[in-house]
Design a protein that fits this description.
two-stranded antiparallel sheet, single chain, alpha+beta, Arc Repressor Mutant, subunit A, 16% strand
Length: 106
């Protein structure tokens, strides 16, 4: 592990995150492990291991039409929708609180 700014950074985690970044935007046609390795600057064996782990957690999936190409799964869309919903609910609560406080007589 490499120490940066007081935090411990895992090289393996950083490789995995680079793979996810490279895969983003390739949901329609997918991306091959060799393309991932090239763009993420990760070895082919590391890409295989990373894809196996991401697939086990249902973060990525092989394309239905070509199981040699991968794409991010719907999990990331669901995660984004959950964050968006939570932020909308928090905003509504803040607006309600602001309304309630503005009605209080001083």
């Amino acid at each position: 592990m490499t120490k940066m700014k007081g935090n411990y950074i895992s090289d393996q985690t950083q490789r995995t995150l680079r793979v996810i970044r490279v895969m983003a935007g390739n949901e329609v046609h997918g991306i091959s492990p060799s393309e991932i390795a090239k763009h993420a600057k990760v070895s082919g064996s590391s890409v295989t291991r990373i894809l196996d782990n991401l697939e086990a957690q249902q973060f990525v999936e092989p394309l239905p039409s070509n199981n040699k190409r991968y794409r991010l799964s719907a999990f990331f869309v669901q995660l984004s929708n959950t964050v968006s919903l939570n932020l909308t609910q928090a905003q509504q609560q803040l607006q309600q609180d602001q309304h309630n406080y503005s009605r209080v007589a001083v």
